[in-house]
Every structure is written in structure tokens, then in C-alpha cells.
Amino acid sequence: MDDMKLTEATMACESKAEKFKQLGTQRTQNVLHAIKVLSRLSNRSSYEYTNEQVKYIFSTIKQALNEAKKNFNEKSNGKSFKL
User: What is the CA radius of gyration of the chain?
Assistant: First the structure.
């Protein structure tokens, strides 16, 4: 009975790990594609923009990326506390 529970737990962990890998790969590819599409806006013969607009775009992206990274580093309850 204990072996069966262990096997089920192992399978559940593998399923979660496989799901993470599958979704992580897909979502990362989507982000990279979006960055590639965004970079096409750099064509000055087709678009007009200021350095401030470019800074704002990349600052916003950097903030979102830092927030996503922070979510991976926080404990499961989302709160961190130390004395």
C-alpha cells in the first residue's frame, strides 16, 4: 500500500514537472516571439519614435520581468518575513 502511494506521488510530481516544462517552453517561446515582433518597431524608415518612448517600453518590460522572477523566488504563500 505504501509503495502504491509513493508511486502515485512520484507520478503526480512527474506530471507537474512535465506540465511545467511544457507550459514553460511554450510561454517562453511566446515571449521571445513578442520581443522579436517588438524589435521590428526599431525600423526608423517605417516608424518615428523618441528615445524616451524606447526607454519607457524597456523599463516597463524590465519591471514585468522582475516581478515574474520575484514570483519564482518567493515562498508559496507569497509573503516573505525575517526577524
Answer: 21
Q: Per-residue confidence of the chain (83 residues) as pLDDT tens digits?
A: 566 666 776 777 779 899 999 999 999 999 999 999 999 999 999 999 999 999 999 999 999 999 999 999 976 555 665 66
Q: Any idea how long the chain is?
A: 83
Q: Which conformational region is residue 75 in: left (phi greater than 0), alpha (psi within -120 to 50 degrees), or beta?
A: beta
Q: Where are the domains of the chain?
A: 2-73
Name the pTM for this structure: 0.70
Which grid coordinates belong to 8? 502515485
